[in-house]
Structures are given as C-alpha cells and as structure tokens.
Amino acid sequence: MTPATATWAATIRSGGDQSRPYLVWLHGLLGTGEDWSPILPFFSDWPQVTLDLPGHGGSTSVEVRDFAEASLGLSRTLAALKIRRYVLMGYSLGGRIALYHACRDRGAGLCGLFVEGAHPGLVDRTMREQRLQHDLEWARRFSQRSMAGVLAEWYRQPVFSDLTASQRWQLCARRGNNNGVAVAGMLAATSLARQPNLLPELQTLSLPFGYLCGERDEKFSGLARQERLPFSLVPGTGHNAHRGNPPAFAGLLLPLLAPLIKGTHDA
Q: Using CA atoms, how far apart are residues 85 and 172, in angstroms rounded to an integer?
C-alpha cells in the first residue's frame, strides 16, 4: 500500500470564480468523488475539486492508520493542487474527516465547514467499544467475502431504511467495483470509535459551519437536534440527501456559502 503521506486522487472542476475559495467535496465510505456529480452543476460559480478518499477510487492504494493521517493526507493533497483557500463539504465518513480536519488540524486556508450526516463523535466508553466491534466485523466481511454479498447486507442497515429495493440494487451495482481489502482498511482506521468527540470544539468553532441531513434520516436529524447543531433538513430524502434530492440540497447549502463570496470570512 502507498504510505499515508501520498496525495489523493483529485478532479478539478473547470470554471467558477477564482476569487472564491474552492469547494472541496469529500464522499462517504464505498464512494468516490463522482458521487457528487448530481450536485456540482448547482455550484458552477465556485471553483470545485472532488477527492477520492484513501482506499477508494483512484486512491485505492493509499492507506491511512487514523484520523490524523487522513487529515494530513487532505492537507498534502490540497497543497499539491495549490489550493490555498477552501471550504470543506463532506458526507458521512468524508464529513467526519472534515470535522476532524477543521477542529484538530486546521490550516489558515480553511474558510468554512459544511457536513452531511456526519457524527461529531461518541462520548460513552461502552458505546465506543460496541462501535469498534461493529466496524471491525464489517471490515472483516469486506476483506474476506465477495463485495456483492457484503453490499447487499450493508445497505440493509437501519440508517439506509428509506431506500427502496430499486435504489438499494442500484447502490450495490455502483459500489461493486470497490476493493474489499482497501475498504476494510479505511473502515477500521476511521471507525467512529477511533474518532475523538469533536462536539466541544464544534460549539466554539469560529468558521462558518453548517450541518445538513435528510428529513427521513431519523438518526442524524435526531443527533443534530440533541446536540443543538446548526442543521438544515433536506426534504423528501434519507441519509444520502445530496443524491436523494440534489436541488433541495443545493438550495440549502448555497445560502450558507453566500457570506464567503464577499470575503467576509476569508483566511
């Protein structure tokens, strides 16, 4: 495997006002930067880059051991792309990496943080232990069994309960090219159990920060309410809100980005 110091696969999206910070899109587990394709046209006035997380897509050979290495890899990748001012937008696992980066490893260039369905971290020790065993068991399945078989089980978890049979089939087909061993390594390294509880730091974050989740995503909408996060609900969709309702998702995110256009929060 390639060391954590390697840069990640990236696709720069042409166009956009270069005076604005880059929108940096981070996908979730089992995805790639292409997952954001339905959303990107709504942000054509912004410079944009989609990244493939370690263990995924063009970054399949990149391996990280923890959140610190993932955050370092993100920083190195942006530096290699000569992106000096940026806004992070992360979904699920990508959102948790974005949260860690903003709270623990933030450079001067980060201008804003927006996440979708991303957990800020567990507090209870027992819950951490249970989650670690849960994620390690999934990692074992991904590394030892056929991708098709594991995906069929993965998308039957409660967080994906809003999916129809057709949507579940489409996701399994789209994710079938993943490398099971690489996915397992990333899942084990970035288990929620290994993530610090970032909530105290988020509550004092000086950057523009927003939290989006689908209105049918009971787990994360409930979490956002419980922790009093500045959240917006995407109507008519569940956990993967940006794919479930791209126009509504963009309609909620664009106003959150608006203060950055005039440079009021520039680094």
A: 36
